[in-house]
Amino acid sequence: MEKHTEQELTRRESLRELISLGINPYPAEEFVTNTTASEIKDHFSESKKNFQQITIAGRMMSRRIMGKASFFEIKDSTGRIQAYINRDEICPTEDKTLYNKVFKKHLDIGDILGLSGEVFKTKVGEVSVRVKKITLLSKALKPLPIVKTDSDGVTHDAFKNTELRYRQRALDLIVNDESWCVFETRTKIFNTIRKRLNKEGYMEVETPILQPIAGGAAARPFITHHNTLDIPLFLRIANELYLKRLIVGGKTGVYEFAKDFRNEGMDRTHNPEFTMLELYVAYKDYNWMMVFIEGLFQEIAQEVFGSTKTSYNQKVINFKGPYKRIPFFDAIKKETGDDISKMTEKELLVYCKSKKIETHKSMGRGKLFDAVFSTFCEEKLIQPTYITDYPIEMSPLTKKHRETEGLTERFELFINGKEIANAYSEQNNPIEQRKSFEEQVKLAERGDDEAMLIDNRFLSAMEYGMPPTSGIGIGMDRLTMLFTNKTSIQDVLFFPQMKPERT
Question: Residue 289 sits in which domain range?
Fold first, then answer.
């Protein structure tokens, strides 16, 4: 049986009293508003006498009852505004039930109300709504945390427990205005990118989330089963191979904001479900993509901050290009003093052991290179930096470097010590692509559960002729963290994955 607190029981009793008074606490009818809190505050003028017949709706966030009159605060999706209610104005007859019983006794902080009336300024100059009519739109059965801000702007008793905020996101959004700011910025980032890509003439598309082969990235997938077809399916780890098939089909540029899934660890920058932007443009290479991304990120920064500079975790990040470009092995040599580019797998294992880097027998040359780079280089890359020209073992979907044997035309963009984007001059030679897939199969046979499988449908599409193409994947959650000064991915996801609650 569900247990209720004393306050919750009191609210349920008020609910019954409201119903007995003939008031529907959850009416179905449309409630038509004609303004918002921010619109009133921004545009009200006493001299113009505007906003004389307004209707607004929102949640009651505070209340001061003073006998025959009261002040309370309403919050809608645009902000908060004070309301003034007078007993005799809303109850012009002898029957004062609406004020004395309904408003004073049976309405609570958290209830959603509709107000009609006029706007005025109080004696202290605060823009307020003089209520002529009040309508209950939804009765809140649970009390809100009481958040108070003193005259110095200091917040007290705030709902700040991070785990509770993530688990009870709706409540977090009600009482913490700054939480909405994060997600509004997230939407602004997405819209800025979408506007730019559409302006370039690139087509937004959708590709399958349930896939017969987990391809396009090195990651461990979630596996499910289709009962009717009696086949295993995978939640996609990437949408890369499908988007390239659309490039084969003749589009110059395609992109997708994709939900991807990886059955791996969780930490401050990893969630098993995450959002990627993947973009593929025909007749371009990775050099073109670096310049394009610099322009795009500058545009996002200008839209969000009005500047190319921002402060993140007490560091100033400058998104203005051009960004520094450092070849992969040069970055490692700079931090370690060692040239590991020609080391064999056995030599790399010995090297990693000497550097106290954890290894596994399934790790091939590519993963060992990656382990060294991650250990010594990543966290040093604070300003936007392109790490370029990765070894071929780390890049099975990438074209070989046009000048240097053993390298590929790939870059990763690092900002504040984290990978934000990964891009290639895409492999468009189906014969070479098959060889790369076959090397991945060998790694899988050694126990590498992140190795790619051969995707014959993708290879078949490539054999019809794939134009030279540049592609990029951008981690939208990490990008949002950067632009909102958040250090945990859970802060930029409405509903992050959480451990089961303890009972």
Answer: 179-323+383-492
**Cβ contacts of 286 within 8 Å, gap of 6 or more:** 388, 409, 410, 411, 423, 424, 425, 470
Q: What is the pLDDT of residues 100-145, one digit of tens each?
A: 999 999 999 999 999 999 999 999 999 999 999 999 999 999 999 8
Whole-model pTM: value is 0.91
Integer angstrom CA distances of residue 11 from 19, 75, 142, 145 = 12, 20, 8, 15
- Cα–chain center distance at 364: 33
User: CA–CA separation, 397 vs 426, rounded Å?
Assistant: 6
**What is the domain count for the chain?**
2
399 shares its domain with 447: yes
Residue 355 lies in a domain: no
Whether residue 372 lies inside any domain: the answer is: no
Q: Decide: 38 and 77 in contact? Cβ < 8 Å.
A: no
Q: What is the CB neighbour count within 10 angstroms for residue 443?
A: 22
**Calpha distance 459→432 (Å, rounded):** 10
Long-range Cβ pairs for the range 371-377 (8 Å, 24+): 372/332, 372/336, 372/340, 372/348, 373/328, 373/331, 373/332, 376/332, 376/335, 376/336, 377/331, 377/332, 377/334, 377/335
